Amino acid sequence: MTALAAFAALPLGFAAHAQAQQAPSAQAPATPGQGEAQQPASPGIKRVAIVDISELPPATQEQVNAAVAQTGDEDLKALRSSIDATPQLTAALKEKGVTSAQVIAANVDNDGTLTLVTKKAS
C-alpha cells in the first residue's frame, strides 16, 4: 500500500464527515465475535470511508483539490492500482456505486480510517 501512504498528508478535516459515509461491509468488527471477522485492507487500516468530493464542506473541497493538483498522474495511477489490488477496497467502492477510476485522493487518519475521496465524471 505504498501508493496509499503517499496520500496520507492530505488534510484530515474531511475524515470526521467521511466516517458518516462508511460502507458497512468495509469495516472490520470493533470486537471479535460480531459476525465474521474481516481482514483490514492493510495492517494499519481499520475502517474504510468513501466520500464524494461534492459531499465535503467547501473549504475542505478546496484543500482536497489543491492536494490533487499537486499529485502527478503516475501517483494517481499507482493509488488506483493499489486500490484495485485490494479486494476489500474494490468491494467498498462497488457498494457505493463507484470504481477506483473515480478516486482522486486517499487519506489514512491516526485512528486507522482510510478515506477514499471520489469525484463523479463531469
What separation lies between the terminal Cα atoms? Answer: 29 Å
Number of strands: 3
Give the number of domains: 1
Radius of gyration: 13 Å
Shape: globular
How would you characterize the largest beta sheet? 3 strands, mixed
* Average pLDDT: 75
H/E series, N to C? HHEHHHEE
The helix content is: 25-40%
Summarize the structure in words:
The structure is a single chain. This protein is α+β, with helices and mostly antiparallel strands and 122 residues long. The chain has one domain. Helix content is 35%, strand content 15%. Strand 2 and strand 3 form a beta hairpin. The longest helix has 12 residues, at 58-69. The radius of gyration is 13 Å and the shape is globular. 30% of the residues are buried.
Please render the helix and strand layout as text.
Layout: H1 2-6, H2 15-19, E1 47-52, H3 58-69, H4 73-84, H5 87-95, E2 103-108, E3 113-118
Parallel strand pairs: 1-3
Antiparallel strand pairs: 2-3
Biased composition (Low complexity): 18-34
Signal peptide: 1-20
Region (Disordered): 18-44
Give the structure's gist in a few sentences.
The chain has 122 residues and is an alpha+beta fold. Helices cover 35% and strands 15% of the residues.
List keywords for this structure.
3 strands, three-stranded mixed sheet, alpha+beta, 122 residues, disordered N terminus
